[in-house]
Amino acid sequence: MTDRRIEQLFAEAAANNWDRRKLMKRAAALGISVPAFVAAMMQAGPAFAQDATPGATPVGTPGATPVATPLARTFDTSNPLAVDPAAPLNPYIFNGGFGIGYAENVNSIYAQTYPGATINFEYGQGLGPALQPRFVAGNPPDVIDNSGANNLDQTTLAAEGSLADLADLLSAPAFDTPGATFLDTLIPGSQQSGIFNGTQNILFLAYTVIGVWASNSLMTEQGITYPKTWDEMLTLSGQIQNEMGIAAWATTGVHTQYMRGFVLDQLIFKNGGLEAMGKIDNLREGAWQQDSVKAAADGIAKLAAGGYILPGFEGLDHTQSQTEWLNGKAVFLPCGSWLENESGVSSLGSVEAVDAFAMSIFPVPSLTATDALPFEAIFASAGENFFVPQQAANQQGGKEWIRMLLSRTAAEYFSQSTRSLSAVAGGAEGLDAGPALASQQAAISAAGANTLTSYYSGWYKDMNDESKNLMFQLLTQAIDAQGFCDGMQAVADSVASDDFVTKFTRPDYAE
User: Fold this and answer.
1) Residue after which a domain boundary falls, among 14, 36, 58
2) For position 249, which CATH number holds?
3) Which terminus of the chain has fewer CB atoms gathered within 10 Å of its CB, N or C?
4) Residues 190, 193, 196, 202, CA torsion sign
5) Is residue 202 included in any domain, yes or no?
């Protein structure tokens, strides 16, 4: 060990009888790099390799990034997917809000299970420009995390038959839950939007909670009570700017899908219920002219007209807007549950500072006091899209990698390291991972059955692209609410009438 801090940390852990989770949390707080820390922890032997479970062995394979993973569970290594154990594997991961550490962890599990396999691990951003040529050439990666801006058009890929059917994976035994199938271990309904024309082509890792974030410590200090209606939010926003001298809201003008998908869509859904959002997702005539849609767009327009959004937001990308918010330039920020991992420590300097900030997620306020759905209703759905290309050289290996990714073992690692929920049922149980994760769990509990999502932006690229353009115009007051609705109706009608665009039907909305 070359880092004196690690030696001191181990001594402190031994003196205080810390378990692995406490040790990892403290290492992060000290700024010790994950690879250096984990390598040292593995060298230290079984005392810190797992959570006080005798006989467990840390995962680690020469040539792979070593990651400590608890192996107290029984793993199914019977190879139910008939993987060629010597075949090379090429995972390609989006390097965004969740980072790549969780994927490196899965690589190490795969390498231990199939020691004869060489893993060519790649990661980056802008997966569309990076990987489209490989699809055209017939040599795509074996498994892909298709997330982030400028990603692959997965709807078109599915319609063209370019994505593998994952039915055999769904029915395979779970990797570390004896007696259960892979599908049995996932949160019910979390994989619904990955079904295209009856075929499961995509599976999702993260169970993302989306809403409005605020510093609970700041709100307590300033005596702020989170509002339950949009009119109350507008009134409070004015008070914040007049009395505190900071902006009420921070958001990104570069990626306006945050304001559209995270705020507007929730306002529509909560006010008009499933019928309002179902008509939009199903491309029904006049869907964007519904009263709920016009009222929601008008609510956003009033936020902009009041000057309640951080000046200069137009040029900020998502991480820049998050940094401004974390640095106290605004009170509210629309975002998903990747927020803390994406910007927390990098902006505030340490895990302790992040915990003291006490970032907490809240539902978007109800549009009115008589909305169809209660205030507690919140957008929550699975995200971080994984699929296996049909032309993958090691298709079964790609499926096996996903089977490991969505195991209880890997899910625990994901939640601990990213402070985010996974789509694995109970994957974060018992974890002490800070206020942000606790607030997500509380929000899901309060919402109960009222967890919501919209589909149109993921199904139809033209609608997604145009909605971002129109939302920017609405936020900058270049158009009014009616102009926004007219523009969205026009693009929706164009998609609906285009025979070359594959159409989808919202599974929970029967007209």
Assistant:
1) 58
2) 3.40.190.10
3) C
4) negative
5) no
Condensed to tens digits (0 to 9), the pLDDT of residues 310-338 reads: 999 999 999 999 999 999 999 999 999 88
Contact 169, 182 (CB under 8 A): yes
Burial zone of 17 (CB within 10 Å; 0-12 exposed, 13-18 middle, 19+ buried): exposed
CA torsion angle for 14, 18, 24, 30 (degrees, to 10)?
Answer: -60
Q: Which domain holds residue 361?
A: 209-380+446-487
SS in 3 state form for 348-408? HCCHHHHHHHCEEEECCCECCCCCCCCCCCEEEEEEEEEECECCCCCHHHHHHHHHHHCCH
Which of 423, 494, 472 is closest to 188 using CA atoms?
A: 423
Evaluate whether residue 88 is within a structural domain. Answer: no
Contacts of 80 (CB under 8 A, 6+ apart): 172, 173
Structurally, the chain folds into a number of domains equal to 2
User: What are phi and psi for residue 236, nearest 5 degrees?
Assistant: -65, -40
Q: What is the pLDDT of residue 432?
A: 74
Over the range 341-360, which residues count as b (16 or more CB within 10 Å of their CB) and which as e?
bbbbbebbeebeebbebbbb
Of residues 51, 41, 54, the one with CA closest to residue 9: 41
pLDDT in tens, 434-455: 889 889 988 988 998 899 999 9
Token pair, residue 91, equals 């995972």
Residue 186 lies in a domain: no
